[in-house]
Design brief:
two-stranded antiparallel sheet, about 300 residues, 6 strands, alpha+beta, single chain
């Protein structure tokens, strides 16, 4: 009815076509634009954060995509979030660590840690209040995960759900990711420029990669230029069609394992150059591994 009720929330009436789609069961369509007047954040006493929320997330796009392909989608962020509703990233204590780890594990097929003690020695802080920063054994993972998480410092989870103590409720709960704006001279971590680092060693070759980014769009571009992204995709398609799970953490020693590993690396290069999953799948269908009944043999049977 559009009237305010005692919990301070306002009913937002939507056209049915913007809520439920009808038609083909198969296909991907762009999500509808849905502008929310505001949302409920945790009751922070930090005036700087309250001001930033009022400036950033009033009449905002609830289905916003933050760039970087799948990285910036609401689905990827919400499915991999470790933040609770209204939780504000704060230095090394609370950041989007799970999203960072999923980037490495799901998109690059990394088994962390990939970094060595020498790679992270400069980041060790012996007198840190955070135990994981005191040793290189912990920082081998945290350098990769936290470095990426620092670049996601402005992303927060919101909910349109009323206060649990309210007795009068209206509508349905709506949860998503929003982005706080940078504030010049801000003291709070979440409002400072979101500088992050992509830091790892490449699959098989072990080449060290350390690159900076300041947005999900930039991170997406960095990943799109990494061979590991395409090798990982090739590995997953290869396993799906042949049943062979290729280890990419090191150079294979067994002769047959090396044949499969070399094939996946070859397919990864093909995918990067062609930018075509169809081309990748056709190449797998033409491979000996797809044709044979026994993946431990060299040729098709």
């Amino acid at each position: 009815n559009g009237k305010f009720i005692n919990n301070g929330q306002q009913a937002l009436r939507l056209d049915q076509s913007k809520v439920t789609q009808v038609g083909n069961l198969v296909g991907i369509n762009a999500s509808h634009s849905l502008i929310l007047p505001s949302f409920r954040l945790s009751s922070s006493s930090d005036g700087e954060i309250k001001t930033a929320v009022a400036n950033s997330l009033t009449n905002f796009e609830s289905n916003r995509h933050f760039g970087g392909g799948v990285l910036g989608s609401q689905a990827f962020l919400l499915n991999n979030s470790n933040l609770t509703n209204g939780q504000i990233p704060s230095e090394s204590e609370v950041i989007n660590r799970r999203i960072a780890s999923r980037v490495y594990e799901d998109l690059l097929c990394h088994q962390l840690p990939t970094l060595s003690d020498v790679d992270v020695q400069a980041e060790v802080i012996p007198n840190s209040t955070h135990g994981f920063q005191q040793t290189s054994s912990c920082m081998r993972c945290h350098s990769s995960i936290d470095g990426l998480g620092f670049g996601l410092r402005q992303l927060v989870v919101y909910t349109s759900a009323p206060n649990p103590m309210d007795t009068q409720k209206v509508g349905v709960n709506f949860t998503g990711y929003g982005q706080l704006q940078q504030v010049a001279g801000a003291s709070h971590f979440a409002l400072k420029p979101p500088t992050g680092t992509l830091h790892f060693r490449s699959l098989v070759s072990g080449e060290k990669i350390k690159q900076s980014f300041s947005s999900l769009a930039e991170l997406g571009n960095l990943l799109a230029n990494q061979q590991d992204l395409y090798t990982c995709a090739a590995k997953r398609y290869y396993q799906f069609f042949t049943g062979v799970d290729v280890d990419l953490t090191k150079v294979a020693e067994d002769e047959i394992d090396k044949l499969h590993q070399d094939k996946v690396l070859e397919l990864g290069v093909l995918l990067k150059s062609s930018q075509s999953v169809r081309t990748l799948v056709k190449a797998i269908f033409s491979s000996d591994a797809f044709k044979t009944r026994n993946y431990r043999t060299k040729v098709s049977q």
